[in-house]
Amino acid sequence: MSKSSPDLFKRRLLWLVLTVLVVVTLSYLSHQRHTDLQSVTPLPVSLPHEGERIQEKEGGKEKEKEPEWTFVVGRDDLNYGLSDEQCDIAFPLLYQEIYRARDHLLKLNRTIKEKDVHVDRKGSYDGRTHGEFQCMILDGELYIIKEVRGEPDRSRGLAALANMYRAISSMPDARHQIPNIEFTFDIEDIAQEGEHNKERIRWTWARHKDNPWHWAMPDFDGWSYPDDGVASFVQFREDVAELEANYTREWYDKPQKLAWRGSFAQNGELRRALVKAAAGKSWSDVKPIDWHDRKDLLAMQDFCKYQYVAHTEGNSWSGRLRYLHVCDSVPVVHELSYAAHYYPLLVASGPSQNYVQVQRNWSDLVPQMEALLADPERTRAIAAESVRVFRDRYLTPAAEACYWRRLFRAWRAVMDFEPRTHYVHRDESRKRRGVSWERFAFRQEKSFEHGFLVEDNIKDEEPE
């Protein structure tokens, strides 16, 4: 062996020892890192924003995770101040009539001009005067610029204004959350009656399906029907809830009858056809009424005691249907000529059916009723869907507030002028336009002020 052999052996042994130490150290560090990672508490998954949906795995399949906030009836149905995002989550299909009206103007490259929001001028229509309210929302405050008295009770207009005011004042920062707009609404049943201008733009309770120029707003019944026997819509919902709670088997405990009451004074031909079609049938509780003797009247909430409730249009649309939708009953409705703000949600067939549609002349009422009576499970599903869609969602007071605010914004999107705060006279003197809702709500023909009975002579006329 050479002299260098022992040194070579030592060097090789040293490298072997170092290699083993490195391997052992790396192995230990790897094990320790794995142990440390196992001991770390996992970070929570970030919650989605309102309206956002995320995907997650469950049983090997992807499913949608519900958004952070969801609408809960009994908790949120009287919440008039839902945010825009919450309104979209809760009522995604509610605004179809609004967008239809807005898009109609956009397609024509048409905007709302100041002349479009003036009340009717003399000579612009034939027949009776239309009841109208010209209004303005400015910095989150509601003003009434002019009122024209017509045939309908003006309480209809006051109800609409009260509903608007509630939708506005429920916002925490209405000055910045509600746009400045000016508009006129018509309180007649037939808002286009006698009008010379076929492109007259108005907010109305309902629009004829052939008239694309009218903007459907929630009708006055959403605040209160002008009759103590019906009361406010909120109270009516409470009364029906108490009534429905008495049925232990819910819909199945109700008589298998179709209920209707109505006068022939409005839409007589259509209503007589219903009475004739239902005459003598075991399932019929269909009766006309005469408002003079008030015989056979049925309180509005008592319609909810029946499995089936019939709806007919009146002079135009009829506010009856929104009340019938509060019932756990099957709405039976003829083909409609008018569209109210929520009518796009009516579904006449398929798995989401929420009412039964019959011919406008009621000629198929008998076979339709026979089919419903022969299939109670299908019929029960229709009633349940009506409750789910309308009573517990899209006809809640919360939904109506959301609709009003969306209407304000869509209207603003097609306005091409700014509402004016003042009239300017020829002598350059200025006068504030309109009366605030808080004052207008208490105006009357005569008022008792400062110990004197005086005329209320507030003038809203725009100077010439």
UniProtKB/TrEMBL annotation:
Biased composition (Basic and acidic residues): 49-66
Residue ranges, annotated region (Disordered): 41-66
Domain Glycosyl transferase CAP10: 177-411
Pfam families, A to Z: Glyco_transf_90
PANTHER family named in the record: GLYCOSYL TRANSFERASE CAP10 DOMAIN-CONTAINING PROTEIN, KDEL LYS-ASP-GLU-LEU CONTAINING - RELATED
Record's protein name: Glycosyl transferase CAP10 domain-containing protein
Species per Swiss-Prot/TrEMBL record: Apiospora phragmitis
